[in-house]
Amino acid sequence: MKCSKEVNEFLKLENGRVKIENKFKKQIYNAIPQSYKTHMGIGPYFIPLFNIMYWKRLEVALELSRKYFHRQKLKICDFGCGLGVLVCLLSNIYSESQICGIDIYPDELLKIAASISDQVSQDKNYSFSQNNIENPSSIEKFDLIFCLDVLEHVNNVYGALNNLKCFLSEESILILAVPVEDWYLKLLREIYTFNGRFGTNDPHWHGDVKDYKHFEKMLKENYNILESVYVPNRLLAYDKIFVCKNKG
Asked: Per-residue pLDDT for 202 more than 60?
């Protein structure tokens, strides 16, 4: 989808590309309570190298969503929304859509996510709710679902992938990201965070899947993969993003 337009002061869209402006990043960092700045999936991304990769992952995911959806009125979900950074971005891009951030966090943390979104979103077209991807308490269909760097944290990845199907219609798009992170990036994380003392340092593959290649094989059994992208590139891959549709 080609578009030459500045969305607002936080985002620029041009010829299908998404650029997250530094003003947005600064406002997000300022809005996050100090007690959460080294946790909640945010910690290592205050470090310059991981900071670049974190925002690049979001830019690529948003570019992929715009490639497959030309219309504005969508039902969009961010599964594993954390403190709502992607929800904020989606709100600024898809201003006519309904956006839902879902996580297992208690209401207290979801209220913090909503508070952050209120500070950096022009349209209040979002909500936050509690649900568990491994054991959903409720099911709702969405046109577009993001699930970025979430599945490596669950115990039963195969079960979570099957549960995600329940939230997809025949035409829905699922955008997944999982970590690749070669040995040199793991080493840099160790150095930068002083072995976890200054930031979360254990985010990868806690359950029945041990690496992204195993995950990709499992994903192909459950979904039609439309395309995949390494972030920031194949040589320095930190994440791999998949665009999928339900096989039925």
From this structure: no
Distance CA(136)–CA(152), nearest Å, equals: 17
Q: Please say whether the beta carbons of 37 and 116 come within 8 A.
A: no
**Topology (CATH) of 4-246:** Rossmann fold (3.40.50)
CA–CA gap between residue 131 and residue 137 (Å, rounded)? 6
Distance CA 117, CA 228 (A): 29
What's the pLDDT score for residue 8? 73
**Which pLDDT band holds residue 201 (cuts at 50, 70, 90)?**
low
How far apart CA 143 and CA 130 sit, in angstroms, is: 19
Q: Say how far residue 9 (Cα) sits from the centre of its chain.
A: 21
Asked whether 130 and 101 are in contact (CB, 8 A), the reply is no
Nearest-angstrom CA–CA distance, 107 and 129: 8
Angle at 168 between CA 162 and CA 169, to 5 degrees: 130
CA–CA separation, 66 vs 181, rounded Å? 26
pTM over 0.90: no
- The span from the CA of 147 to the CA of 177, in Å, is 7
What are the domain boundaries of the chain? 4-246
Give DSSP secondary structure letters for 12-37. Answer: EEETTEEEE-HHHHHHHHHHS-GGGT
